[in-house]
Amino acid sequence: MQTPGNTNRMEQLSFDSLLEESGNQDTAITDEISTKTNRKTFPIHFITDFERFMDYIAQHKIELTNKNGYISRKHLPLINDRMSVKAANATSYYSQQQSYPYIHFFFHIALNGKLILATGKFEKLHLTVTERWQAFMNLTDTEKYFFLLETFWVDINWARLLNMKHNRTYDIFPVVAEKLLDKTSGSCLDLRHETLLANLMYNWNDLFLYVEWFGLWITEKDQEAIDHDQKKDSYFAKTITLTDFGKKMFPVLMNDRNLLYWNLPLRQEYGEVNPIPGSALPEMDDSDKKQAKQLPKAFHQAFVPLFSKSDLYKSLPRMEGQFKEGTYTFTVALNGRTWRKVVLSANHTMDDLHNIIIRAYAFDDDHLYSFFMDGIKWSPVCIASPDDISGGANAAVTTIGSVGLNKEQRFLYLYDYGDEWQFTVIVDDIHEGADEPVNPYIQDVVGSGPDQYPYY
């Protein structure tokens, strides 16, 4: 992949303020930042390209694919032409989003950062730019960078990003960081001499590039391993070398922004619902919980000592951990012709939502169920039946107002693990000022419900 410079845009950033430590600048780093090679230290082109991506989304009606909900392929070459990092493996009109790793990454950042939203009910879904996009554009370049980094570090499910159901990159990443930060390593890790670690990183693929695009390290591509793998979109690295910028950033990321505390999909995988990034883990002892409370609450705050206050002062607001009062209206669709609209209060539980769905479709309530909040069947990010002992949050004690739902959010309700009845649940409305219903009720019915046991 090629990454041409963007010197005009780089001049807009106040580089003299970068990486200050108590008013004393690292001369070697600030000298590098003053040169055109600074794109390897502070990747301003990454921000520029992201803005170009978002501008394209704002100016076009982007339909999403049925299977994965990704950008339809007709738009991908046009977006690719706007990028400074071109997709090397997208060779035809039929190449899908995963063949454009740079665009694929931006898509997940924009979606998880709530800058774009998949809208539409039963017709084909398309992307809509949210009001947060304008708020993003009002940030400084440094603040934009940290919002993008925060979204990657906190909000994105790395397994989903790498098109995997389960992924243990969270476990291996700290090991890689520790080796890179070891003074004896020279900030370089040669994976050809780290056979066991290289094997554990076998499925990292574009994760190598994601971190590189943030300017934290540089990888040397292992073309021999790529050819041996015989997969078009695979990526392997011979070596990983920290940039000067990465040498400053990685200690803060690993010590003050530990993935175990800060990555929300990882915490949800272990059964938490709507956790607060950086908050104490449920199984922590009192001393660890006290230490966790002392850390800066906003993601960017841990990095403020490295930057001028005028460059890094704020980010976009987060809403995790807040109980959202109100009346919730859901559309629960079997397909575009058969759906039910149900109404519940914030204080009703997800088990109550299950019960009203079962009643609306006239099903017997004699099977297990799960709500997969990321819309992916058998994802670990789920709220499950109280009788399900396989994991996930307990639906009977999880109130709707505590889940952190947003209007137009979609998730999957799966009933009966044998027959696997699948329903798309859409948050139609959250009326925070309305009188909340005492009991859940069915508001609308469209289409004849299916026979629950057609084979009997």
Automatic annotation (TrEMBL):
Top-level taxon of the source organism: Bacteria
Q: Which residues form the Plasmid pRiA4b Orf3-like domain?
A: 337-446
* InterPro entries on file: MM3350-like_sf (IPR024047), Plasmid_pRiA4b_Orf3-like (IPR012912)
A Pfam family reported for this protein in Swiss-Prot or TrEMBL: PRiA4_ORF3
Name this protein carries in UniProt? Plasmid pRiA4b ORF-3 family protein
Can you name the source organism?
Answer: Lentibacillus salicampi
